[in-house]
Amino acid sequence: MEHKFGIAIHGGAGTILRTSLTAEKEKLYKDALQAALLSGYTLLQKDGSALDAVEAAIKSLEDCPLFNAGKGAVFNSEGRHEMDASIMNGKNLTAGAVGLIKNVKNPITLARKIMENTTHVFVCGEGAENYARAFRLEMASDEYFFDKFRFEQWKQSSMAGGTFLDHNLHGTNAPDEKKFGTVGAVAMDKNGNLAAGTSTGGMTNKSPGRLGDSAVIGAGTYANNNTCAISCTGHGELFIRSVVAYDISALMEYKKLSLAEACHEVVMKKLVQIEGEGGLIAIDKYGNIELPFNSEGMYRAMKSSDGREEAAIYK
Q1: Exposure winner among 12, 137, 209, 241, fewest CB in 10 A?
Q2: Percent of the chain beyond pLDDT 70?
Q3: Are 208 and 80 in contact (CB under 8 A)?
């Protein structure tokens, strides 16, 4: 029996207001989301796996400088890039994650290689980069990752002397302008298999060595065929403390909540109580998709074989 299939993607959440995006910029974001969505959905249509769809969609977002992952990754306090990514297969609960890597063009592809070709789950820094070279993955120079807008953002953060979420996105310098620029995807294929993946450049001006939730299985990424697939975007430290992605799966498994109920409980109640701002994308084993967030906005898009389709930014 052929299952309903579908995919959802996100490009970050935070203080994203209509007043701060020009019509041109809004179109650029929506076009980029649509391109990433289609790259994954097309694979699902052609009987591709959920894993393939998730990787393809995230690679598309990593290759786009608008998002804080891959080419658009933000600078840390030393003016360098340290990227994190993770991927999980809901069919057998295998997972791969990389943290604190540089010069790897597509961190999500390296995370998948770690999952499928090593006995490890999580590899960081130089060790992960060595794997990238051993697997002959595409590497890129520091110049490839240099984005003038991100560099100006970093200089502002350095002068302010703090660690900032990928904020100040549209030239305003309000301290409450926050954007969590993680990218991610979740999918279900025609065989009913679920997968999730997440990739990020982290926080602007972050301390070298800092890891957020994007690379942490159970916090920023989780997939289990029995329940759901989740990819998060938000204040990483609080998402780690709340084990957000796994918590949603656990609420479904043990309390028998629906996907919508579990998402509401975690995103709108538990996270809000500890001032954890952000959101997530989710798909359950029936192909239901939820895109909850407690911030002003979240770059998001979804497409399902039952005809549902959406691409949105604001509440």
Answers
A1: 209
A2: 94
A3: yes
Q: Which residues are catalytic?
A: 182
Distance of CA 249 to the CA centre of its chain: 17
Tokens representing 196 are 């999730």
DSSP category for residue 210: -
Among residues 58, 235, 76, which one has the least CA distance to residue 150? 76
CB 232 within 8 Å of CB 222: no
- Residue that is written with structure tokens 């996105």 in the block: 169
Rank 71-80, 81-90, 156-165, 168-177 by mean pLDDT and report only the highest.
81-90
Residues 34 and 310: their CA atoms lie apart, in Å, by 9
Q: Cβ(53)–Cβ(44) under 8 Å?
A: yes
Q: Strand pairing partners for 86?
A: 97, 198
Task: Identify any residues that bridge with 300 across adjacent strands, giving them in sequence order.
Answer: 10, 312
> Is pLDDT above 60 for 308?
yes
Tell me how far apart the alpha carbons of residues 133 and 110 are, in angstroms, rounded to a whole number: 10
Burial label for 146, CB within 10 Å (0-12, 13-18, 19+), is middle
Q: pTM of the entire structure? A: 0.94
What sign has the CA pseudo-torsion 15, 16, 20, 25? Answer: positive
Joined tokens for residue 237: 């430290």
Q: Specify the higher pLDDT residue, 143 or 178.
A: 143
Cα torsion at 229, 309, 233, 87 (round to 10°)? 40
Say which residues have a Cβ less than 8 Å from residue 271's Cβ, sequence separation at least 6: 234, 238, 239, 242, 244, 277, 278, 294
Q: Is the pLDDT of residue 231 over 60?
A: yes
Contact 10, 245 (CB under 8 A): no
Pairing of strands 228-234, 221-223: antiparallel
Counted residue by residue, the chain has a size of: 315
